[in-house]
């Protein structure tokens, strides 16, 4: 099958006091399927509810095939507030030798913009090869909350760490300063992933990234304290502040839903402690 390039471009701005999708472009198989309005209830008694736009991205194909490339570019204007997600797992199918799949995402947040980006998990099929990269550009007062969950394959079919390679690079700029850099490479056939100090018995990995120039040590302590009380999941949890303006929560376990539940808890906690906002509620 010939390779495909799917693309989404989306730009948001505040118009008449509300966040609006002011420009969009998509190339199949990616598209913006739906937008809807959220109302953020503030925890401050003297503040009014804030507006936020919800956006669903859709992949109308079975997933990333050998040689496919996805390009996603999102820009938020000053004061814009967006919740972004997709409709299902991102599935990466087997790749032919030398023809892996690629994905590039670029996020631009202008002053006081807020983006909460919560995609569904990434599913790496047997013999899949994916190189993913994300570039984030932040301005003063902007906030990014982003989660990712990586699954080792279709576990019910015995696909556990049978993909060939997964590379994931992330860079975050605050103005012109590079404040965060991550470069991850996993090759199950050449690594002892079950070794002590590595993945051991765990198979799924998830992260919640929070970037804001308002982050303090107390936000880390509050998130860790809350997650220590979380019941009903069997996961390993770690969290730390980054070099500058960042907080990362990392979770390892054996089921995607456990990681999603844990990261959602951390997300709701940071909404409350950092942004003084309750969980999102749809305005019907």
Automatic annotation (TrEMBL):
Pfam families: UreD (PF01774). Its main location: cytoplasm. InterPro entries: UreD. Keywords: Chaperone, Cytoplasm, Nickel insertion. It is found in: Cytoplasm. Coiled coil: none annotated. Transmembrane segments: none annotated. Required for maturation of urease via the functional incorporation of the urease nickel metallocenter. PANTHER family: UREASE ACCESSORY PROTEIN D. HAMAP family: UreD (MF_01384). Belongs to the UreD family. UreD, UreF and UreG form a complex that acts as a GTP-hydrolysis-dependent molecular chaperone, activating the urease apoprotein by helping to assemble the nickel containing metallocenter of UreC. The UreE protein probably delivers the nickel. This is Urease accessory protein UreD. The gene is ureD.
